[in-house]
Specification:
The chain is an alpha/beta fold and about 230 residues long. The chain has one domain: Class I glutamine amidotransferase (GATase) domain (Rossmann fold, 3-Layer(aba) Sandwich), CATH 3.40.50.880. Helix content is about 25%, strand content about 25%. Its EC number is 6.3.5.3, 3.5.1.2.
Length: about 230
Amino acid sequence: MTARIGVVTFPGSLDDRDTQRAIRLAGAEPVALWHKDKDLKQVDAVVLPGGFSYGDYLRAGAISRFSPVMDTVIEQAKAGLPVLGICNGFQVLTEAHLLPGAMLGNDHLHFICRDQKLRVENAETAWTGDYRQGQEIHIPLKNMDGRYVADPYTLDKLEAEGRVVFRYLDFNPNGSLNDIAGVTNEAGNVVGLMPHPEHAVEPLIGTGRTDGLPFFTSILKKLVNA
């Protein structure tokens, strides 16, 4: 029996179906989760997808963080449930304090959409085991509020503990401190990043490469071998 990975849909989510397809391509079973339901349907992992939940009112992710489903996600993530936040999902994870730091508007004040080169800094999380540390990949990026910030103490701690998972290469698209594109929690089960791996799982779409597929094969292997 294959792993079951839940994908939460908030009002304004855009990439939930794309994420479900990526999960299916990796060989796992995607399970649709609705933001108003606290029941996670006994899934083995959860993805918070990209989009503009609640229109990014107040702050990106600030309202979604209080959706009923997040009560259960927060509780189970603290108990070890693997959780991936992509773009808006990353913003929700910071608002929920499952990941440190915060997301602000891009330093150039414009929406950006481009293929982005990244370096894998940590290949030991639940979501990155099929990458190699130092590997360079290309993942689509699209955001308005993608600037990762944190206080100096938090940044130093993230760097010292190897909790920066991905870093922008060649070009910092949003002014993120230390070129940070993604981070993880101390346990390595919660990961958030701004680029969209679900858009890089087939040669026909996205970057024309499959550099995003290892996110989903990594968690599948992690769960199957647990």
